[in-house]
């Protein structure tokens, strides 16, 4: 049992940091966080969210942001204690031991891969619309992997497959290239969002905001099994904020991580929340919330259509593509660094922990999971698996929050470059928010999550436990102690003789 709960020491885990190139600064981390957060939430989820909560969707975004904010404070404290790759995986290794750390790492792999694959499918849809605007049409058989349109058969999502491979190439050749590409795309994305707000704000009709909260906090409509209101909408738009935790996985490539990591996490969350709230108020002010049913898959495009600003549609379409590209980039980046950290600890094959001599990146591991993600987005129907992203993320949030409580108790004097304010209330509130969101998931999600965990436990007990670096060190130490004890006993016997 003790071997399952063996932990790493803070000083030891920092000393193990390997020679990844440290070039990320506060600006780059903020751009990385914004790149992960702003994308699908604005261009896709605002439609369904508006139908669920009405104009009060702005409050739902704020509620989801508060949940992530509490978790973000806990992430920031851990990141300042142990500025290493691995994010929640490494933090769990410090607080709760190897088995819990492996489970969290296993969940994060699912979260990052599945979200990147899902976003690649949405990216393909916007890309096809952009091509159609210029008179080009890809064969329908190569434009999606879902086959959900009646009478239409599709086999392969070619645009989504290609964009994931291109992002994987950028990630594999170096962090400098990655941050430059991400920074540029995030600036373009923010500029287009600001342009959208400036151009459409004069079309706001305050009457569309009344009633502001037509469904209240939580309610069921007659004849519907779907809950409506601010809280159910918050559960939907929570997906918008998934990914900010990937910022902490860049710790070993960050300059002065004790300060820059907490700043990057919290600043990106704050900026993204303000943008989401403003966008939501503008969109529900221009178009009555019930009308979003007409364009639920492309709510921003629907708002532009209502204003008659057709020239803006092409620009915003490009913004959607850029926005979702940055989301995929950050997700694949975070995934490769989680696997890198787990391989370094012996819990994954050494392949994933090898650092390229020229690019100083986990080259092989990046390509391995990049190809798998591209295949998943290209061939697999992943609609029914999307909620697994949510449950995997929430479980990680809860472990990190509980870890702050535990570390404050067991290691109160450990160096903390940043301290989460309001402890113990901050991590407790984070856990409560996560439990509320988890309670809203359906039972099929729990079953699929249990199957994924079962596979992970099989990997741990079949491979990881035997190859754990910490376990081998413990065995070596135990053998040395036994040898020393036997040698001492022999010396004592010879002395008596």
Question: What key attributes describe this structure?
Answer:
497 residues, mainly alpha, Amino acid/polyamine transporter I, two-stranded antiparallel ribbon, 17 helices, 2 strands, globular
The end-to-end span amounts to 42 Å
Q: Could you give me the name of the CATH homologous superfamily? A: Amino acid/polyamine transporter I
CATH architecture descriptor text: Up-down Bundle
The largest beta-sheet arranges its strands as 1-2
Topology as H/E string? HHHHHHHHEEHHHHHHHHH
CATH topology: Amino acid/polyamine transporter I
Keywords: Membrane, Transmembrane, Transmembrane helix, Transport
GO molecular function, one term: amino acid transmembrane transporter activity
Pfam families: AA_permease_2 (PF13520)
Protein name: Amino acid permease
Structure overview:
- It comes from Bifidobacterium primatium.
- Its main location: membrane.
- The protein has 497 residues and is mainly α.
- It has one domain (2-496): Amino acid/polyamine transporter I, CATH 1.20.1740.
- It has 17 helices and two strands.
- The protein has a two-stranded antiparallel sheet with strand order 1-2.
- Helix 3 packs antiparallel against helix 9 (230-241), helix 4 (57-81) packs antiparallel against helix 10 (257-286) and helix 5 (88-95) packs antiparallel against helix 6 (98-133).
- The longest helix is centred in the first third of the chain and has 36 residues, at 98-133.
- It is globular and about 100 Å long.
- The two termini are 42 Å apart.
- Residues 145-151 have low confidence and may be disordered.
